[in-house]
Amino acid sequence: MREGYIGSWGDYLNARIEVTEVARVDGMTRLTAEYTNLEDRAIETGAALNPMNPKWLRIIDPVGQRHYAPFEDIGADASDFRRDELWNPGVTYELVVFLPELEGDPEQVTVEGPGGVGEFAGVPVVDGEPEDYPDALPEDRADGWPAEGERITVPVAEGTPEEDPQELVHDIVSSTESVVNGRETEGDRETVALRTDVLFGFDEAELDEDARAVLKDVIAETEERADPEKPPITVTGHTDGIGKDDYNQKLSEKRADAVREVLEDGLGSGYEFETEGRGSSDPVEPEGGDDDSWARSQNRRVEISYAFKEETSTEEEGRERTERELFEVDPGDAGAPAAFRPVEGEEPAATADFEQSYSYNGDRRHEWTFEAYPFYRDGAFLVARFAATHEGDELPVTRHPFGGSGHLDLSAVDPATGTVYPQVYSVAKDADHEAPSTLSRVGASGWPATAPGSTHYGYLYLAAPPEGTTELPLSVDGYAMLEGVPIEE
């Protein structure tokens, strides 16, 4: 059982959710959950349909690395409730949804709760029996129905779904990334973009010993490919669009100078260098769109540009995005599915405060307190858990504060190697696993609600580091780097 804000950032409410069953029934999977409104008021029907939409209830098989979405033409249907009947305070609503059959007969799964209510790890999968459910609301229901304390079942549409079950079963794809954030080849020049969240602390321009060690591979590659007879090597710093222009300009210049200094020391006197900073004036991805956080992560970079040697083979001209290495964990080698972990009473492992500005909201700034809880392993994955408290004015209900996808861009970073463990993706089996949609990350969606002064829980599934790793820093969307977050087995 969990309590939290469900729905999405515009239409949300505080509720209690209890997952009561995940069962194999008639070649499908039946998931039953109970919703109870914890607000002291009823919720308008239009807003209430959002958090009660069955699409929010999904299943993760963390060992088999599969992601299951519910059928839309069968299962709970709340559309016939009147305005004053849905989401009444103190009423428990039972929702029944049907999903495709679970592959490999897992004994335990994780259920994704709606909005910021959180994940339900360790739910047992049982053999169920057919049940008789109401297919309509009672015709003789009186005014004031349902009353506080009542428990009702939302009408259930049953039968054979028209949707192809295989379209609702996705692979969960893991990957690692390096300090190299992208490459571009044009004519005889190559530009290598480096991730600033790996090299620098938040709002910092100094390289520590770990970052200098990570740059050794970059130095070796530059020596192999750059032609010293065709100077210069240009080092250019870039920021995202958050913050004031003059501050971003100075930060980009300082970071470019720091990287140039390390390159110069490593390559020796046979190379000439130039440095410049461009602040946020030269983005590679447009910000403010459906996945603003991802776009900004691509724009925060330091670029190394050089003329390459004639004997150096090159790819076709064009820009290559983040260098990503996909990997799949054999289910036999994956860890065990996690047990349910309530967050109530648990102390955060690290805390950070940061500000945001919203040009579409009168350029007002908003402060967030971000708390990271210990990571834990769930099968083949690492689960990042966090809570954010929003301070400031009400945010626009039509815009998500961290991008339209409802996701923060979180990743775990190994400072010793520069390896990044990013969020995992839910990808259709026949889709390109090399280029998943940035909107298909696995974790809390529609998060957080935007009420000022409120605290909201969230979670995201990340690629897992090697066994034996005991802690990692957590990079928070370019706003903060939370050090020393422990990994609980």
UniProtKB/TrEMBL annotation:
PROSITE patterns, per database record: OMPA_2
UniProt entry tagged with the keyword Transit peptide: no
Pfam family, one: OmpA
UniProt subcellular location: Cell outer membrane
Sorted UniProt keywords: Cell outer membrane, Membrane
Region feature (Disordered): 222-249, 267-325
Transferase recorded as keyword: no
One GO term describing the cellular component: cell outer membrane
Biased composition annotated in UniProt, kind: Basic and acidic residues: 300-325
Gene3D superfamilies given in the database record: OmpA-like domain (3.30.1330.60)
Official protein name in the record: Outer membrane protein OmpA-like peptidoglycan-associated protein
Species name: Nocardiopsis composta
